[in-house]
């Protein structure tokens, strides 16, 4: 007789094999991550026999475990995305809270940061390669 952990993994694999959306790499990462999560739930004392039994308390346990292990925000965002994917497939979308509710910091982007460099004639005279010289002039002309 299969253990509860193995039955949980079997139900996860069944959903993964019937839903082959995304790239092969994403599918592989999703499979590896969800298998690891089932093991973590089993180690935490949660004896789930089917992924349809997944509840918010299980997701909160996993996120607390990852935070205590010192995993990065990016890793936790990815793992929660995999959880959201599988809960969407079993029609339990509200099980995984938003990243804000979980306390996972979003990406910080410097969108309004100007990285342009204005080259002076002295700087351009130092360029000896004619192709690079032409490329820089074209970039200036097109505003790059």
Describe the structure in your own words.
The protein has 144 residues and is mainly alpha-helical. 60% of the residues lie in helices and 0% in strands. It has 7 helices and no strands. It is elongated and about 75 Å long.
What is the number of helical segments per DSSP (H or I, 4+ residues)?
A: 7
Q: pLDDT average, as an integer? A: 88
Order of helices and strands: HHHHHHH
Largest sheet: none
- Categorize the overall geometry: elongated
**Low-confidence parts, pLDDT < 50 over ≥5 residues?**
none
Alpha-carbon Rg, integer: 24 Å
Record field, number of beta strands: 0
Q: Can you give the helix content as a percent range?
A: 55-70%
**Per DSSP, what share of the residues sits in E-state strands of 2 or more residues?**
under 5%
Distance between the termini: 65 Å
State the secondary-structure class: mainly alpha
Mind sketching the topology for me?
Elements: H1 4-18, H2 24-43, H3 56-68, H4 73-89, H5 99-102, H6 121-125, H7 130-142
Helix pairs in contact: 1-2
In a nutshell, what does this entry contain?
The chain has about 140 residues and is mainly α.
What attributes characterize this protein structure?
7 helices, 144 residues, single chain
């Amino acid at each position: 007789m299969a253990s509860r952990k193995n039955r949980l993994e079997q139900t996860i694999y069944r959903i993964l094999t019937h839903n082959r959306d995304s790239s092969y790499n994403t599918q592989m990462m999703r499979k590896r991550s969800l298998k690891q999560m089932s093991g973590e739930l089993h180690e935490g004392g949660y004896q789930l026999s089917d992924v349809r039994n997944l509840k918010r308390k299980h997701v909160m346990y996993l996120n607390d475990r990852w935070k205590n292990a010192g995993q990065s925000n990016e890793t936790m965002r990815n793992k929660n995305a995999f959880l959201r994917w599988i809960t969407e497939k079993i029609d339990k979308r509200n099980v995984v809270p938003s990243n804000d509710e979980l306390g996972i910091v979003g990406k910080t982007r410097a969108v309004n940061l100007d990285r342009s460099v204005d080259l002076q004639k002295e700087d351009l005279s130092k360029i000896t390669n004619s192709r690079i010289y032409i490329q820089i002039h074209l970039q200036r002309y097109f505003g790059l």
